[in-house]
């Protein structure tokens, strides 16, 4: 009997040998893991969903252990100061640039609202001056809306001749009191980006 045939005979003998009782084991299914926590990382910030308190973190943000980005707050202020002619609520062309700049400012800071405060000089009756100050504020409001500002972001109030900046009785003082003013503070949070090999170090 050659060597290869002998090997086949031995193998057949081994694999066809009767099984003994101690060689038989009961089959057990592989247990399925009871995974409760969400181990995925949907926003790809390195923190799994189960621990991520800020699931919509912007890409490249410098995050903390809770998956929340670091924001750097910036603040900017914009003033509006529009003067009117006597007994008039018409905006003069020289003040239209201010209105455009304020519209652009409000667009840059979409969470900011504006209160337009209208005033009148102490000439004529107080009741008439109250209505006049409101019409002046409304004129500026209309101009802002025409420049794309949402009406929900603009509030008007008229003070009539009750809050005078200039107390004189001359024409210059009266002219300075015929106005609409507003001060708006815009706040914006810019996300701080994480460090990488491409980050530039300020000198």
UniProtKB/TrEMBL annotation:
Q: Where is the OmpA-like domain?
A: 71-188
Q: Which Pfam family, just one, is annotated for this protein?
A: OmpA
**UniProt keyword Membrane present:** yes
Keywords linked to the UniProt accession = Cell outer membrane, Membrane
Location, primary (coarse class): membrane
Recorded GO cellular component terms are:
cell outer membrane
Source organism superkingdom: Bacteria
Q: What is this protein called?
A: OmpA family protein
